[in-house]
Amino acid sequence: MSLLITNAMILTMTGETVTPIHGDLLIEGDLITAVGEVPAEKKAQADEVIDAQGMAALPGLVNCHNHAAMSILRGFSEDLRLMEWLSQKMWPAEARMTQEDVYLGTLLAAAEMIKSGTTTFADMYVFTDSVAQAVIDSGMRASLTRGMIDAPDGQEMRFAEARALFEKWNGAGDGRISVMAGPHGPHTCPPAFLQEIFKLAEEFNAPLHIHLAETTEEVEIIRREYGLTPTEYLKEVGLFDHHVVLAHSVHLTAGDIEILRSANLRGGIAHNPVSNLKLGCGIAPVTSYLQAGLTVGIGTDGPGSATTLDLFEEIKAAAWLQKVQTFDPTALNASQVLHMATREGAKVLALDSQIGTLEAGKKADVILVDTHAAHLRPHHDLTALLAYSANGADVHTTIVNGEVLMKGRKLTKLDEQALIAEIEERAKQITAGI
Ligand SMILES: CSC[C@H]1O[C@@H](n2cnc3c(O)ncnc32)[C@H](O)[C@@H]1O
Ligand SMILES: [Zn+2]
Q1: Is 160 contained in some domain?
Q2: Fewer CB within 10 A of the end CB, N or C, for the chain?
Q3: Is residue 271 domain-shared with residue 371, that is, in the same domain?
Q4: Model confidence pLDDT, tens digit, residues 29-53
Q5: Is 250 helix (H, G, I), strand (E, B) or coil?
Q6: Cα(171)–Cα(191) distance, integer angstroms
């Protein structure tokens, strides 16, 4: 099957800065095969044509940190500190969630992500068979982890599930699913437990995904326990010898940044600006990370702490926060922040050989953003409009691996209304009395 997109304003996201080009894009099977100019005979043979007049074509957005199934808990508990929110609300509610709840919650999150232009997400959760099945059924691309928290009971079961995720799902869905090892965080993973997880990652030659220095409370817990910063602690146990996704990384010292720089860190930071704002965690020093040569992508965190899974909201928040933190409106410009949400995010997830840019040979993960609306006119600077003025509802078409998952804002594989109805019922039962 081939799909021709014509008359688009194409942002390939390949260069240092973003320079839109006007032209066509050809998808054959799951690959992009031509960008800008498409040979006339190929155009004539296309099975399907989308006229993208007035639309911007971008690589699908990459959400570098999520707990997607928590969509079922959205809005259930608000305005609490992270530790309280987790231990008194989220964890008791999660203890009631079934495999089916995780499947439905992940599907609902997938519907929201597809509708707002995200094509790939990195997830950390439990009941990972259900998460993976939802990824298969939604058509999205995902990097999955079984979140690992040290606890007295059930350790064998957790490791068995993490192993099964690798064995059963790595590469599934025509390569749409990749798997990482997922230690939850420095304060929930003591050294011996982390070492066991590293062994698993090494066995499958896989990256790791972990929360890091999200709150000052976490920094204080690790200082009391080990006399180290969370980053120093993770260095001591050997985490930075691996490709790693460091979610949050809000409270890193200059010394911590130097540790990551001198480790020639493979992977990078998953910055979650809206979750950090809402939970009152602080502002991650993204500008310093970029100056140190670190790779930074963008995530939402779970829909329990993120307000929505719309990465366009995160793109704006990321830019605003750096500008206000540094008192410098040139900090984190539109081109940089759009790169973070696409190409750089793909690097953080070790998926940059497949996705993140629009180039012949890359997997066909493409979004079309309709720029006809009043808030996206006139077109003085398309890059700035997309970074600062667009939102998820402007996404017209979402394509993953060459398959159209949304066209004209209609989902092609998921029944959004049926999902919502089912989730409403389950959400009430899960949260009753907590
Ligand atoms: C064991 S699976 C992952 C685990 O993480 C919890 N979680 C959700 N949001 C956050 C956050 O912002 N920081 C740390 N942990 C978080 C989620 O509830 C799952 O239990
Ligand atoms: Zn998280």
Answers
A1: yes
A2: N
A3: no
A4: 999 999 999 999 999 999 999 999 9
A5: coil
A6: 30
